[in-house]
Amino acid sequence: RGVIFDFNGTMVFDEKFHMAAWKKFLSDKLGVEITDEEYQNNFHAIPAGDVIKKYFDYAVSKCNKRYHIE
Question: pTM surpassing 0.90?
Fold first, then answer.
């Protein structure tokens, strides 16, 4: 027996928190402001490590289910 939970979009709608976190990071750390539409087109539903690798040119590796910037 087992139970599988899929919280994102099923039980909890947390996308607004992800968007706010990315927008704050981009603004505070890089001085970049993005619109909600830019977020949806470039960040939504993409793993954080993939976003960092693609847009920030960092080498990212998966280790123990967490992303680490090398």
Answer: no
